[in-house]
Amino acid sequence: MSSPPAQTTTLPPFTITSPLGTDIWRKPPNINVFTAPTHPSPLLKHPLNRFHRTRLTVSLPPPSTLRQFDQAGLILHFTSSDSTREDKWIKTGLEFYNSRSWISTVGCDAWSDWSVVPMTVGDGEGPEVTVEAERKGKSLWVYQILTDQDGKEERLPLRELNWVFAEEEEGWDVGFGGFVARETEGEGRDELVGHFGDGLVVEVLEG
Fold it and tell me: Which domains, and CATH codes, for the chain?
């Protein structure tokens, strides 16, 4: 697959520890939360009209230790040079919901909308997923990346989001990073640790 000339930034592997009571979520009439820790902090930022692709791999502890809505993954945070315009975001990665692990994607233009895809986790193992967000024309596509024993990749589409680039020439930037959130109280340690074993890859078009 041919790609336009791009500038690539690769961050080394990292770990994020989240305290209890964190989330990234926006729901009417008045819930607007962006308290999850991220890495890097501040996020790696570029003009939105230069965005091409970003990818990371994230893992969480075994499901027996997870709580409802525990989550970790890739965050894209859209901010405007016009301070009167509300920020937007996309998060995708792992989420523990109704006693099982899912691949979760949330897009937030005005309000959050959420979708999940089931995944299989082996006994005693923690869930792990590689996710990628890529520009395709005027759409942003989110993929799960599967790699076989020979290193061949398969890209499974998770979501298409069509609002992302609608106003890209109007002073919008996008920040890239990993995040971890733990919303729910429960037994055991209150902290949730997410591992990002391949770091973070960001590709932007050359300016």
Answer: 9-205 (2.60.120.200)
